[in-house]
Specification:
Strand 6 and strand 7 form a beta hairpin. Helix 4 crosses helix 6. The protein is globular and about 50 Å long. It starts with a strand and ends with a strand. The protein folds into 2 domains: 68 residues, ATP-grasp fold, A domain (Dna Ligase, domain 1, 2-Layer Sandwich); 107 residues, D-amino Acid Aminotransferase, Chain A, domain 1 (2-Layer Sandwich). The chain is α+β, with helices and mostly antiparallel strands. Strands 1, 6, 7, 8, 9, 10 and 11 form a 7-stranded antiparallel β-sheet that branches. The protein has a 4-stranded antiparallel β-sheet with strand order 2-5-3-4, covered by helices on one side.
């Protein structure tokens, strides 16, 4: 099995037509000067030993200028297994999780629910066996408790589109064993992938 960290997983999803946040990957402090992204920024460590980045202090948000970016790069560089930093533009909205998981009983299963770092504690998630059709996607969205909070503040059509696109992605990439998109940040105008990882057979 091969683990695709954030950089590889995001690039794969973007190649397949998913909307991924504007980002750049840097390995040195000097590269911060060449960044063409708009502040405020988020910085995330790239490390095979820090899969859950937030738990090891590997995620820094709302970086307002170059000086703050340099200071936080130095902190991230101290994290075990450091390979580089994923620098992203910030966006606002509701945090959702989308994913795929290969199971012995059902084959590839899709999940959808409330995202963010507390996703395991909240467990507000719905599931369907792939492939997923429009009716399935509508039901998945409405089944979660978080639906009451997103139905007027998030673009449900874009959420549905991402679920259907993920189903097609699963058919095209049968070797996918696991995929987590967390979060997909959704507001009234946009739905953008901010973090992802995958496991491929």
């Amino acid at each position: 099995m091969r683990l695709l960290l954030e950089r590889q997983a995001e690039n794969l999803l973007e190649k397949e037509g998913f909307n991924v946040i504007n980002r750049e990957y840097i390995k040195s402090r000097k590269e911060i000067e060449k960044i063409k992204l708009k502040y405020p920024l988020a910085m995330k460590v790239i490390s095979k030993k820090a899969i859950h980045k937030a738990k090891v202090g590997g995620v820094v948000l709302n970086i307002k200028n170059k000086k703050e970016a340099e200071k936080n790069f130095d902190k991230l560089r101290e994290i075990k297994g450091f390979e580089g930093v994923n620098v992203q533009e910030m966006t606002k909205g509701k945090f959702m999780i989308l994913g795929l998981k290969k199971t012995e009983e059902f084959g590839l299963v899709m999940m959808f629910g409330e995202g963010g770092i507390e996703v395991e504690e909240k467990r507000d998630i719905s599931f369907r066996v792939c492939p997923v059709n429009e009716k399935d996607a509508d039901e998945m969205i409405k089944e979660i408790k978080f639906y009451k909070k997103i139905k007027k503040k998030a673009n449900l059509k874009l959420i549905k589109m991402n679920l259907l696109k993920l189903s097609k992605f699963a058919e095209k990439h049968p070797k996918i064993n696991e995929l987590d998109i967390n979060p997909l940040i959704v507001n009234k105008d946009d739905a953008v992938i901010v973090d992802a990882r995958a496991v491929i057979n």
